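User: Hey, my collaborator sent me this sequence without any context and asked if I could get a structure. I don't really work with proteins. Can you help?
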Amino acid sequence: MESINHTHTHSHPHPNYHPPNQKKSGSFDILNPLRRVVDGIQVKHNRIAHLICQTIPCCCPFERKINLFGRIFDIPALCKLNPLYNEFVGLRFRALSYLADECGEDVTKYIC
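Assistant: No problem. I've predicted the 3D structure and written it out in structure-token form, which is a compact way to encode the shape of the chain:
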């Protein structure tokens, strides 16, 4: 029985493939400068790292279940609507990593 090998000539699995959260080339992202600023923040002081971990929640504070007149209403997490959500999550992770790895601190109080 013969086997057939098929090779793609594209560098991506599909010609219209774009990685998640990546803009198509030529598109304009007005928030890109702000994204770069947040991504460029380096955590080098434990007081700043603690402030970041206290300020940026570990889970979305807007997700709620509300009991109203015997009916339960679920308010979904709205954090993904924040256009800088991924950058803030990354900053919080860098702060947690700094506290744990560089300062040797217990960060379990900052983890949900």
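In plain terms: Confidence is low (pLDDT under 50) at residues 1-19. You can pass these tokens on to your collaborator as they are.
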